[in-house]
Automatic annotation (TrEMBL):
Protein name, per record: Transcriptional regulatory protein ZraR
Domain Sigma-54 factor interaction: 158-382
Molecular function terms, GO-annotated: ATP binding; sequence-specific DNA binding
Keywords: ATP-binding, Nucleotide-binding, Transcription, Transcription regulation
SUPFAM superfamilies, per the entry: Homeodomain-like, P-loop containing nucleoside triphosphate hydrolases, PYP-like sensor domain (PAS domain)
InterPro entries reported in the protein's UniProt record: AAA_lid_NorR, Homeodomain-like_sf, HTH_Fis, P-loop_NTPase, PAS, PAS-like_dom_sf, Sigma_54_int
Record has Transcription as a keyword: yes
Pfam families assigned to the protein according to its UniProt record, in alphabetical order: AAA_lid_14, HTH_8, Sigma54_activ_2
Biological process annotations from GO: regulation of DNA-templated transcription
Residue ranges occupied by any PAS domain in the UniProt entry: 6-51
Taxonomic lineage from the root: Bacteria, Pseudomonadati, Planctomycetota, Planctomycetia, Pirellulales
Annotated region (Disordered), positions in chain: 66-100
Length: 466
């Protein structure tokens, strides 16, 4: 905000207020933050000025960028010109404890390219009548909450609250806490290489990294591809480096043996992160012991395999990435995260997906998983001229897909009891999660007695143990 004597009384008045207030310019950047914002977020307001304030724009590891992005207005704001949102800031490295959630009122001043947005924190009783906007805001709040609790897990592959997503995050967190050889088992299109890169940067920041496409390698080409890191390792006896090998199960045996030689030559200063399809098989057994080395990794009928020398290195740490078919409940959050990222990168102006569009995304089987979903979101962003992505903006294959097409009606069946049981189990788990594990509160929300809820939970635990 421009400095002048005319503005000083107003600025002093704003700074004396306990209500946080900030201003966003037409380009989506913060231009003014009151002193109360600094007290709320436990940061200097000046440190946020000039940062991009658009949902999903925190594409760097700077915690202040994530903080600025969390202050952005909700979906539908540009059309309505006014909106309310409960903001859950992620906090900064210096903020302890995390800043509290704050009900915020956004108001647009002006119109077109010259409009600015004013945000004021406080208590508001506004009721939104647009059910689509309400749903989009709920999804945005879930995503903001997820980002707040998983700030370091920025990849779209890890977004979600399903069991599969939780397991993947735990495996990535463990792999990123120690420098060790690592095997990533991934279906196609699950962004395994980005996970490998993230693990490398967390476990060995600043260490040189090279990525190799295993299917194209022979020993000579492998030596050329690794030359950057091998020269680095030869120059210093204390240096380390990492090689990411895509498609280890498709890498020719002689190239695998050459890679094993380099790792042994540098006494494991060359760390290997290998990416494979699910459950690679081991094709070369130790000729001295003739042991069944296939026990190191699950046997499979996939073409190719993993050399026993590399399998010995990779048997310690592994990450299993799951296909979207096992993470259907995560698809709305993943799609919204991808939409936010595309919007902040300037690919379009849409800030939410309609309910019908989300339904179409959930129904589609996604054979190429996250890669295909990201392409669908990108196409929808470019096709959409408004703020809401509709089914017509999605790729034809997605919007026209119908489950059970081609299956005779007589062959289609639904197990009612099993379907009801799954719905009940999912509802109980979700309510317990929202109640922070408080069973009495969960029973109140489900409108059942605590004793009945405990019986249901005991039954679920018994079913899971069988």
């Amino acid at each position: 905000m421009a400095s002048s004597t005319k503005h000083r009384p107003f600025s002093r008045l704003i700074d004396r207020s306990t209500a946080p207030l900030w201003v966003i310019d037409p380009d989506g950047r913060l231009v003014f933050l009151s002193a109360a914002v600094g007290s709320w977020l436990d940061v200097s307001p000046e440190s946020l000025v000039g940062r991009l304030c658009v949902a999903g724009s925190a594409v760097t590891d700077d915690p202040l960028d994530r903080l600025a992005a969390s202050l952005s207005p909700p979906p539908g704001f540009q059309t309505r010109g006014t909106a309310s949102l409960r903001i859950q800031p992620p906090g900064s490295e210096s903020a302890s404890p995390r800043p509290a959630a704050l009900d915020t009122r956004f108001v647009r001043l002006g119109s077109g390219d010259q409009s600015v947005t004013v945000a004021i924190g406080g208590s508001f009783a506004d009721q939104q009548s647009d059910s689509g906007v309400v749903s989009a805001n709920e999804l945005r709040q879930q995503l903001d909450s997820w980002r707040r609790h998983h700030e370091t897990a920025s990849q779209s592959a890890l977004v979600g609250r399903s069991r599969s997503a939780t397991r993947m995050r735990r495996q990535v967190q463990l792999a990123g806490s120690v420098r060790a050889h690592l095997l990533i088992l991934s279906p196609p299109g699950c962004l395994a290489e980005s996970i490998a890169t993230a693990v490398h940067h967390r476990s060995s920041p600043g260490e040189p990294l090279v990525t190799v496409d295993g299917a194209l390698m022979d020993p000579e080409l492998l030596d050329a591809s690794l030359s950057v890191v091998t020269h680095h390792l030869l120059d210093s006896g204390d240096a380390n480096a990492t090689a990411v090998l895509r498609g280890i199960d498709e890498t020719p045996p002689d190239a695998q043996q050459r890679l094993a030689y380099w790792i042994d030559h540098f006494d494991n200063r060359l760390r290997l992160i290998a990416v494979s399809g699910p459950a690679p098989r081991i094709t070369h057994v130790d000729p001295e012991t003739d042991e069944g080395a296939a026990d190191l990794l699950a046997a499979d009928e996939l073409p190719g395999g993993v050399d026993v020398a590399l399998a010995d290195l990779l048997c310690g740490f592994s990450i299993n990435l799951y296909p979207l078919s096992r993470r259907v409940a995560d698809i709305p959050l993943i799609a919204q995260a991808m939409l936010d990222k595309r919007r902040s990168s300037g690919d379009g102006s849409a800030d939410r997906l309609s309910r019908a569009a989300l339904d179409a995304l959930v129904l589609y089987p996604w054979p190429d998983n996250l890669r295909e979903l990201d392409q669908a979101v990108r196409q929808a962003m470019r096709a959409c001229r408004g703020e809401v992505v509709q089914p017509d903006h999605l790729p034809l294959a997605v919007r026209s897909y119908r489950p059970n097409e081609g299956v005779p009606v007589s062959a289609q069946s639904v197990d009612l009891d099993a379907t009801v049981a799954r719905f009940e189990a999912d509802l109980i788990r979700k309510t317990l999660d929202e109640s922070d594990g408080n069973r009495a509160e969960a029973a109140r929300r489900l409108n059942v007695s605590r004793a009945r809820l405990l019986r249901k939970i005991e039954s679920l635990l018994s079913d899971n143990s069988q």
